[in-house]
Write a structure and sequence with these properties.
It contains eight helices and no strands. By secondary structure, it is mostly helical. Helix 4 (about 85-105) runs antiparallel to helix 5 and helix 4 (about 85-105) packs parallel to helix 6. It is elongated and about 80 Å long. The N and C termini lie far apart (about 85 Å).
Length: about 210
């Protein structure tokens, strides 16, 4: 007993390293509270949890953006806005009347500028119409062409019969532009239809 007291060095007894005054060990737990918190947070936010969170975010974005390849806006994925059948008719009328008005204002009639504008309008309609309303592009174009002739074709008003005769004459004189624009729209929508059908078949086969 006296020997053990002599061999013990004088002064305060040393504490075990790695544990401060405020890091007392809790019975049944191995390690200080900070290390336990770090391990718990690392387990919650580790790579598997982060991967699952990213997958949920991507799935929510796909649902909001509309994953279908048909119509829809698709603004989140960078696709151009698609026109419905009503939107296609409004765009066709607005474009044809705008080009006809500019042509008449600058050149006093409906000539080459109106014909070129009609081609541009038909192209845009066929490209931007949504898949479920493809037939609207080649139909709305000629209607807008005829409406522009009725409203902005120069000539005196001669009643209903005179308007019909003037419209028939205007369509006959500009039949080349009318057929070219309508054929362009029909070719584009047909190509889109065929490409979409092939894409669906390939996706189902794969």
């Amino acid at each position: 007993m006296e020997q053990s007291i002599r061999t013990q060095p004088p002064g305060p007894r040393r504490r075990p390293p790695g544990r401060g005054a405020g890091e007392a060990a809790v019975p049944g737990q191995s390690g200080p509270p900070e290390s336990r918190l770090r391990s718990a947070s690392g387990a919650r936010t580790g790579p598997p949890a982060l991967k699952r969170a990213l997958q949920r975010v991507l799935a929510a974005r796909q649902r909001r953006g509309g994953g279908g390849t048909g119509g829809g806006t698709g603004s989140g994925s960078g696709r151009p806005a698609r026109l419905t059948a009503v939107g296609t008719g409004v765009a066709a009328a607005a474009g044809a009347l705008a080009f006809a008005g500019v042509d008449r204002l600058l050149f006093g009639g409906l000539g080459v500028l109106f014909g070129l504008g009609y081609l541009v309008v038909c192209f845009q309609l066929a490209v931007r119409v949504r898949y479920s309303d493809l037939a609207a592009a080649p139909i709305c174009g000629p209607i807008a062409f005829a409406a522009a002739l009725v409203l902005l074709q120069p000539g005196p008003s001669q009643g209903v019969t005179g308007e019909v005769v003037a419209l028939a004459g205007g369509l006959a004189l500009r039949a080349g532009w009318l057929f070219a624009g309508t054929a362009l729209a029909a070719a584009i929508v047909t190509a889109r239809y065929v490409a979409q059908r092939r894409h669906r078949r390939a996706r189902l086969a794969g």
